[in-house]
Amino acid sequence: MKLRTTLGAGLGALALVLSMAGSAQAAQGNFTYKYVDGFGVERQATLHDPHSGKCINLYAVGDDEEQPGYGPHNDTDTAVTVYLGANCQSPGWRLKAHGQPAKDTLEVRSVRFDAPQAR
After folding, report:
1. CA 96 to mean position of chain CA atoms
2. Which CA distances in Å does 29 have to 5, 8, 17, 117?
3. b/e map of 93-102 (b: 16 or more CB within 10 Å)?
4. DSSP result, 74-112
5. Structural domains of the chain in order of their starting residue, each with its CATH number
6. pLDDT tens string for the chain (119 positions)?
7. Four-point Cα dihedral 36, 41, 42, 47, nearest 10
């Protein structure tokens, strides 16, 4: 009887740990990019601990009718693909985790972060 109770408790704890690991679907760190606002002023935007595994249209540049952002910097713990098109359309460029800032010639409108590795 004790073995069955212990085994049940162990499996329950394992299921709880695995479900908690799956709910943490965010890259940890900051992703930044630059853009020019409607007044012609260069601004910088930051995504802090961005969601992983889904497409994110970036603030102020995430529409194909707007000027794209540029010079992205991935300082998160997961790789990211940046896209010139909104809704993660068009060819994408991969930026590694904790990488160097990209050149200002790399334009961006949307991003998708890889699912984070088990921590």
Report:
1. 11
2. 41, 37, 23, 14
3. eebebeeeeb
4. EEESS-EEEESSGGG-S-EEEE-TT-PPPPTT-EESEEE
5. 29-113 (2.60.20.10)
6. 454 444 444 444 444 444 444 445 899 999 999 999 999 999 999 999 999 999 999 999 999 899 999 999 999 999 999 999 999 998 899 999 999 999 999 999 999 999 866 55
7. -70
Q: Which pTM value belongs to this model?
A: 0.77
Q: For the chain, give the longest Cα–Cα distance.
A: 73
AA letter at 93: W
- Residue 115 carries which side chain, given as an amino acid letter? A
